[in-house]
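From the shared-data thread, chain only:
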Amino acid sequence: MLETLNSILMTIGDPLLSWLLGLPRDIALLIVAVGTALILIGVRVLTTDQDLLGRCQKDKVRLKQLIREARKTCDKDAVARYRTTIGQIGIRTFKAEGKPLLASLLPIAILACWCWDQIAFMPLAPEEPIEVKAYFPVREIGKLVHIIPQQGIKADGNWIQAIERDVDQKGKEVDNGVATWKLRCQHRDDPYALQIRYDSRVFAKDLIVDGRRYAQPIKFYDDDTVLCCEVDMADHEYHPLNIIPGFPGVFLPPWIVGYLIIVLPLSFLLKPMLRVY
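Structure, as tokens:
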């Protein structure tokens, strides 16, 4: 279901946004973030009664002035009435927030999906060493698996590898097996289709080395022998300005952090600048 939705959104977004891949990654992210802020503003203008929201905003400003004046004269009843009126205005304006939120979901989803697929990592360079891993259940440890050689790809070592016990970053054993290859690929406009042969079956994994794009690092399989295949992209993770970190504990990669740093303040600044309520 999620893969189908992702495919649909990419089918819409890629023709519209792929030109950004020819720009420096920071510029591309800036354009996407500014575009997001403008979409939010534009959708708000088209889906809300701006005249009503403008009058509500002016009324709230005036009521706050009246509250300050009433406090000076210790008129508690007036303060209570003004606060009640502000609350009623708040309920009225809150009801108007639903339409722009719903209307902006599709364009924002397209942008987010495209960015996740296309700018979360830097592209692989030709002839750069690439580590490819295939993961297996523990019961497969000790068996042999191989990647089928193809033109344009060289292996630093053997094409045939033994499945070994996997370990985490701290060197602690984990409950699966892994086979690892180090490959070098020539530049090619079309994706390579890695073919991992195991137990008389072939499991495919795309690998892109065109200088502009990358394939998703992990491919999962609906199989009980080969769990997934991973191209190690850890050193290629895109950090805006080369300094902005990610927060993997809350599923915020660096590009999303940089994106939010631009979008959130810009959205608030553009509203008064463009007189949008």
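The mean pLDDT is 91.
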